Amino acid sequence: xxxxxDKVLCQTPTPGKRPTRIERWKYDLIHSAILAVIHxxxxxxxxxxxxxxxxxxxxxGDLENLGSISWYTTTVKLDMExxxxxxxxxxxxxxxxxxxxxD
Length: 103
Known about the structure:
- This protein is α+β, with helices and mostly antiparallel strands.
- The protein has 4 helices and 5 strands.
- It has helices at residues 24-40, 50-57, 60-66, 69-82; strands spanning 7-10, 20-23, 44-46, 86-88, 96-99.
- The model has no long low-confidence stretch (mean pLDDT 91).
C-alpha cells in the first residue's frame, strides 16, 4: 500500500478547483519530460502539442503503467504553473508555455 509520502498534491491555478494527488513516480516522470520538451523546443511550446511531445519523450515501459498521458501532462503542467516553474506566454493564442521568467 502506498503511503501519502509517495504521492504529490498537484495544485491548479483555477479558483475553486481542488488539488489532485498523483503517484510521485508519475509526477516526476511527467515533470522532467515537460521541462525537457520545453527546452528542446527553443524555450516555447504550444500547449496543444505538449501531451504528444511528452509521450515521445517517455520510454515505452513507462507508458504501459502511466495511464492517460494527456490527463497527467495537464495535471502536472497546472501544478508547475502554480509553483512558477513554467508559465503561459502572455497574449498567446493558442496557449503557449515557457520556463517561468522572473519579474
